[in-house]
Specification:
With 334 residues, this protein is α/β, with parallel strands linked by helices. The chain folds into two domains: 188 residues, FAD/NAD(P)-binding domain (3-Layer(bba) Sandwich); 120 residues, FAD/NAD(P)-binding domain (3-Layer(bba) Sandwich). 22% of the residues lie in helices and 27% in strands. The protein contains seven helices and 19 strands. The strands form five sheets. Strands 1, 2, 5, 6, 7, 8 and 19 form a seven-stranded mixed sheet that branches. It starts with a strand and ends with a helix. The chain binds flavin-adenine dinucleotide. Flavin-adenine dinucleotide binds next to α1 and α7.
């Protein structure tokens, strides 16, 4: 047998991909995980994960993912630091798919699990990425809890921004929603919840231009005195209608302007929704299978998890995709 032929090739090494790998290797399938440019996935850029069960005091995101990788390799799965550029349908040497890597090498697979995740879109401010975990967040469900009695700002105007604002208002003393247009895109019911919440104030026609702008007035902001200087203290807001700028103290900035799934490389192969999330759930025998027989998907890259975007949900999907791929492989005469 060609040593490059795998029963399952799992693309992505976040919670979805690594959990799928655990199930596949324990089903005695020859399995490899291709880790991509972010080994361990999105959780590796967060500090504290408080909602992964089993850790009474929470766990660091990188620690959780490094431990998950160790568990997977201890079980006998190969994890390769490689990024996939293309998958093609390929019937040879009992394989169904050819996986092309950006270094031009190739692997063959009987089944493929796509677990490539989705990246939060960021505003694009110079120090924005450095401030993640220091007040800047792409996930209100994950980090809202840390902002009890603090002032937070949400950026965006869609469903997620409105839902995030309402969710954050449970903890925060004040929630500003900064939106660059004059009206929300969000569903009417979500807008109603925002407008009806006395803690939430919407700043229309407004854009964030700077984080922690140098201004002595900011010294009085709520968190600076208590927690020191490297955290978010304030944002500079630009009103695109009046051209006015103002500095607004804030402890947290939640960027809710959408997510981009890493699925462009399979655009010609499997059905995706208009935003690029891989469609699953349409095959009644194989709920985790995409429109292409033998290609499964799990986690934030899929239509099923796109509205949840939580590690435990991605891991749960990874488990299902692993089991579904195993069951499909068992039904094939390869
Ligand atoms: C800052 C931050 C904090 C968060 N905090 C929490 C939290 O506290 N609790 C929680 O439950 N969730 C949290 N989340 C959300 C959570 O991280 C995601 O829901 C989860 O990681 C999704 O898992 P996934 O496996 O689907 O994708 P990801 O974790 O995004 O992993 C995708 C993987 O695919 C790989 N990949 C992509 N393209 C390719 C390619 N072409 N070839 C090979 N590999 C590829 C990447 O390298 C990566 O390894 C947070 C997210 C962020 C950004």
């Amino acid at each position: 047998m060609n040593e490059n032929v795998y029963d399952t090739i799992i693309i992505g090494s976040g919670p979805a991909g690594l959990t799928a790998a655990i199930y596949n290797v324990r089903a005695d399938l020859k399995t490899i995980v291709l880790a991509g440019e972010q080994p361990g996935g999105q959780l590796t850029i967060t500090t504290a994960v408080d909602n992964w069960p089993g850790f009474p005091l929470g766990i660091g995101g990188t620690k959780l993912m490094m431990d998950m990788q160790k568990q997977v390799t201890n079980l006998g799965v190969e994890i390769k630091n490689a990024t996939v550029s293309r998958i093609s349908n390929f019937k040879l040497q009992s394989a169904n798919f050819k996986i092309e890597l950006i270094d031009k090498s190739e692997l063959l697979a009987k089944a493929v699990i796509l677990a490539t995740g989705a990246k939060a879109k960021w505003i694009g401010l110079p120090n924005e990425k450095e401030m993640i975990g220091k007040g800047v967040s792409g996930c209100a469900t994950c980090d809202g809890f840390f902002f009890r009695d603090k002032v937070v700002t949400v950026v965006g105007g869609g469903d997620t921004a409105c839902e995030d604002a309402v969710f954050l208002a449970k903890f925060a003393s004040k929630v500003y929603v900064v939106h660059r247009r004059e009206e929300f895109r969000a569903a009417a019911i979500e807008q109603k919840k925002v407008f009806g919440n006395p803690k939430i104030e919407v700043l229309w026609n407004s854009e964030i231009k700077e984080l922690n702008p140098p201004d002595p007035a900011v010294a009085g902001s709520p968190s600076l005195d208590k927690e020191g200087g490297d955290k978010l203290r304030a944002v500079k807001i630009f009103n695109n209608k009046t051209n006015e700028e103002k500095i607004m103290p804030t402890d947290g900035l939640f960027v809710a302007i959408g997510h981009t799934p890493a699925t462009e490389f399979v655009a010609d192969l499997v059905n995706r929704d208009p935003e690029g999330f891989v469609v699953i759930g349409e095959n009644k025998d194989h709920p985790m299978m995409t429109s292409m027989a033998g290609i499964f998907a799990a986690g934030d890259a899929t239509t099923i998890n796109r509205d949840f975007r939580q590690a435990i949900a991605a891991a749960g999907d990874g488990c299902k995709a692993g089991l579904d791929a195993e069951s499909w492989l068992g039904s094939q005469s390869l």
